[in-house]
Specification:
This protein is an alpha/beta fold. Helices cover 45% and strands 12% of the residues. Strand 1, helix 1 and strand 2 form a beta-alpha-beta unit.
């Protein structure tokens, strides 16, 4: 079966809009009190609404276990949002100093292995039951349209396609029935056949919609019926939410399966089983804490490697997906985070000035003959070309195989992007106040406070950069925001740092996290690049609907 990323059962959808303080929720670790103080300071400086700090009981180190994340972070976050009525407001989660950087890969316990084996067996049974139920629906469709010849694909995806085709015929036939009694008899028969497929809750919801359509003319009996249906559906929704909030608990998963099978039918049940099988897979399930946190509203999705970022400016969609943007306010020392906040706010007013430094040529130091590396190097060269052609910003471009020597750039650096020196931070010069930059290399955010690390994120933050990004593990090149997309959007001054990152980062549930004030807009006061000068495809990223 193809890898499924199932954002299952009534996930929240939020409209896309420009990021504001009201859209933020701040996350701290109760075991690192400095993080709470920084969140309170940020709240005051950025005028974040009250009661937007969620304090979690987390380990004080760089890593949290998979199970601890699932059982301590996800339920607490969901319940905090639901209790505070924040579901329609919060679009960006901000982790603070003291929150772990990464989530360890899932370790399968004997109980997990037994559950997985049982689910795989149950999946075969559930798909078989669904096939039998859909065959009954197809039989009615053939009665009303003898030319209909159902497909024979018995895979889950094939059965779902068959169900859709049969229901399409039944729906068209219903519109042709003019006699109300005939229509009622037909719909009753169809509902009976569909009941195992869609479940009693779906039928109840249809009945509720029918009653709502005549609400102005309700009889007392219809009013009582509508209230009974409403109350039952509300209770079901609340129970589903509770069970899904605690989907890391095997007992909750078991109860959820029973409830879905009983009330939501075989279609959702088979999807749920498939999602749980994906969820229990342990292969390559480690991730950056923040990148996984983006998916905290999703339930049983595959944790194997990565998922495409639905916020990416090229992603096809009409509504914002059920994920959060995430950002991090962190550094080796608490006072550095304090300075990041202060500098970001100040530079928004004063404007960011200094050199744009692009250190290309990294492919030549890795493998000069590798076409993938050469292709990525072009993204840095295209960034330099955009700066040179369409801005007044001073540019330093280096294309040699080796990275720029230490302190070789004599003027203050406002923006830096380069590659490839793994865990070998070498500052090319002094960074201007409010500087933004990142180095494309693996393992550059495995720690900010661990001893002996010479990683780029730690070094740049210590040297005054206020916004950077890096991987907590091996991310591969396709995980990095392309420099010729990230920085041109930043130069326009139209988007916050969080929006720039989330419109250009390709993957979620993976290895990279972004550090910086989510609201930081360094070129707001003095845009460095006109919107018309953006590459044509990139201009769509400025559309609020994307």
């Amino acid at each position: 079966m193809k890898r499924l990323a199932i954002f299952l059962l009534l996930c929240l959808l939020r409209p896309a809009a420009a990021l504001e303080p009201d859209n933020l929720l701040l996350i701290t670790n109760k075991n690192v009190p400095e993080g709470r103080k920084l969140a309170e300071f940020y709240t005051a400086q950025r005028k974040v609404p009250e009661k937007r700090i969620l304090e979690l009981d987390l380990p004080a180190g760089d890593e949290i276990s998979f199970d601890a994340y699932e059982n301590q972070v996800v339920p607490a976050l969901r319940e905090f949002i639901a209790t505070g009525g924040l579901g329609s407001k919060v679009t960006c989660l901000v982790t603070f100093y003291g929150v772990p950087l990464k989530i360890a890969a899932r370790v399968s316990s004997p109980a997990d292995k037994a559950e997985l084996a049982a689910l795989q067996q149950e999946q075969k049974s559930a798909v078989g039951q669904l096939g039998t139920a859909i065959t009954a629906v197809e039989a009615i469709a053939r009665e009303v349209n003898p030319s209909f010849h159902p497909a024979t694909d018995s895979s889950l995806n094939g059965l779902l396609a068959r169900d859709h085709a049969a229901r399409d015929i039944l729906g068209r036939h219903a519109t042709q029935l003019k006699d109300p009694k005939q229509l009622q008899l037909f719909m009753t028969r169809v509902q009976q056949a569909l009941a195992p497929v869609v479940g009693s809750a779906s039928i109840a919801q249809q009945q509720m919609q029918g009653l709502i359509s005549i609400a102005n003319n309700w009889t007392p009996e219809q009013k009582r019926q509508a209230e009974t249906l409403r109350d039952a559906l509300t209770r079901l929704r609340a129970r589903l939410d509770t069970l899904q909030n605690h989907h890391g608990d095997p007992k909750q998963r078991e109860e959820l399966r029973a409830l879905v099978k009983q009330d939501l039918g075989l279609t959702e049940y088979t999807r749920l089983i498939a999602g749980m099988i994906d969820y229990l897979n342990t292969d390559a399930t480690g991730a950056a804490f923040d990148s996984e946190l983006a998916c905290a509203n999703a339930n049983f999705y595959s944790r194997v490697r990565s998922l495409p970022n639905p916020f990416h400016y090229k992603a096809p969609r009409t509504q914002a997906p059920p994920i959060f943007m995430t950002m991090r306010l962190d550094a080796p020392k608490p006072e550095q985070v304090h300075e990041i906040i202060n500098q970001s706010i100040k530079v928004e007013t004063d404007g960011l000035t200094g050199q744009i430094v692009v250190d290309a040529g990294g492919n030549l130091s890795i493998d000069p003959k590798n076409a993938v590396y050469a292709g990525f190097d072009l993204t840095l060269k295209r960034l330099a070309a955009i700066v040179q052609k369409n801005t007044q910003l001073p540019l330093t471009l280096d294309e040699k195989p080796a990275i720029l020597p230490k302190d070789s750039v004599k003027e203050p650096i406002a923006v830096y992007c380069g590659w490839y020196a793994i865990r070998n931070y070498t500052p090319p010069g002094k960074f201007a106040p409010g500087a933004v930059g990142y180095h494309i290399a693996s393992f550059e955010l495995t720690t900010l406070r661990g001893a002996g690390a010479n990683e780029w994120c730690r070094g740049m933050l210590s040297d005054g950069v206020v916004a950077t990004l890096g991987p907590v593990n091996e991310p591969y090149l396709n995980a990095f925001p392309p420099p010729d997309e990230f920085f041109p959007l930043l130069f326009t001054g139209k988007l916050t740092l969080a929006e720039v990152y989330w419109k250009t980062t390709p993957l979620i549930s993976w290895q990279i996290a972004m550090i910086g004030d989510p609201l930081y807009t360094p070129y707001r006061a003095h845009p460095a690049l006109a919107v018309e000068a953006l590459p044509e495809g990139l201009r769509g990223a400025l559309n609020p609907a994307r």
